[in-house]
Amino acid sequence: MKLKSICVYCGSSPGASPAYMGAANLLGAEMARRGIHLVYGGARVGLMGEVARSVLSAGGKVTGVIPEALTDQEVAFDTLENLIVVDSMQSRKAKMEELADGFIALPGGFGTFDELFEVLTGAQLGFHAKPSGLLNVERHYDHLLTFIDHTVKEKFVHLPHREMIHVSDNPADLIDQMALFDKPPIRKTDWVHSMNKK
Fold this sequence. Notes:
The protein has 198 residues and is of the alpha/beta class. It has a single domain (5-196), classed as Rossmann fold. The protein has helices at 18-33, 46-57, 89-99, 110-124, 142-153, 159-162, 171-179, 188-196; strands at 5-9, 37-40, 62-67, 83-86, 103-105, 132-135, 165-168. α1 packs parallel to α2 (46-57). The radius of gyration is 17 Å and the shape is globular.
């Protein structure tokens, strides 16, 4: 799969460890090196601002998408050549999904989780066939992955859908994994029907 654009979900905070900002910088540089267009949440602070600045400083292209109500709270990157202001969080997520060929989550909080799980659910249901990945800096996502594995064991998530989540602490490796993604072998609805027949 040719990834021409990747949406990066991440915190508007820099986080507790300098490694988080370092990872945002490395990811941005790697995307620019490969000619991959960054789509992201449009802020100039925290990890969001760092990944955008990194792409720009390496000569890459960036599109920010931010709700009008958050242009002050999240400190919009208003000098971006392409900053799209939308009317709601739902519109922001829809626009970022539309513009991206794949999705990467850097460390973040509730907003990052919400965005990541929405696109994973879309792939699970067969609404799109775009890859998703976790840049697992400082093992930030280890506990979340353990919980997801628990949901597989308890038969709420089908193993092939768990395997849609690509994971690495290295940006180049993660993008390489995502480029090999095809699509889930079975839609969630088909799997649920087969479970209920047992």
